[in-house]
Amino acid sequence: MSLYETGDDAQVIQLMPPSFEGIISEFEEELGMGSWMVSVLTGDVYWSEGTYRIHAVAPNTPIGLESAFSYFAEEDEQHIRDVVDEARQREQDFVFEATLVSETGRRKRVRSYGRCVDRDGAPFLMGVISLIGDDAPKPVLTTF
């Protein structure tokens, strides 16, 4: 079965308690990043608040795998599908840089790191996505 045969009827997967997600969301916003996870078996997709923010999509909007791929610029989409599919088949880590087109139509440069993991006997792809280049937030240095 191909990773892409699942369509857009996938469910949002809840991973962390809401209190923890709030703290993580603050870090993601400051760093211009988010996390994501996809079930290889079902195509169910989880996006953190940061990932929704990067895509300019309302949090907790159900996102299927096809929709997730469709946010990438036409010139990058097939390459990303190939990288992710090969990583899934070989069970290896991956990284790519691409142009993402947000829900508002804004083009943003992103880098995503991913890996194949086993979660309770089921295969998942999980990773992070971050804004890069001119789209990345400027770091704020804080002393403790």
Key traits:
144 residues; alpha+beta; Beta-Lactamase; 5-stranded antiparallel beta sheet; 4 helices; 5 strands; disordered N terminus
Tell me what the structure shows.
The protein has 144 residues and is of the alpha+beta class. The chain has a single domain (18-135), classed as 2-Layer Sandwich (Beta-Lactamase), CATH 3.30.450.20. 31% of the residues lie in helices and 28% in strands. It contains 4 helices and 5 strands; from the N terminus they run αββαααβββ. It has a 5-stranded antiparallel sheet with strand order 2-1-5-4-3. The longest helix has 17 residues, at 74-90. Mean pLDDT is 84; it is low at 1-7.
Number of domains: 1
Under the CATH scheme, the architecture is 2-Layer Sandwich
Class based on secondary structure composition and strand pairing? alpha+beta
Helix content range: 25-40%
Rg is 15 Å
Dominant shape:
globular
| Order of adjacent strands in the largest pleated sheet | 2-1-5-4-3
Name the CATH superfamily assignment. Answer: PAS domain
DSSP strand tally: 5
Low-pLDDT stretches are: 1-7
Briefly note the CATH topology name. Answer: Beta-Lactamase
Overall mean confidence score, pLDDT: 84
CATH class: Alpha Beta
Brief synopsis:
With 144 residues, the chain is of the alpha+beta class. Helices cover 31% and strands 28% of the residues. The protein has helices at residues 18-31, 49-55, 65-70, 74-90; strands spanning 33-39, 45-47, 94-101, 107-119, 122-131.
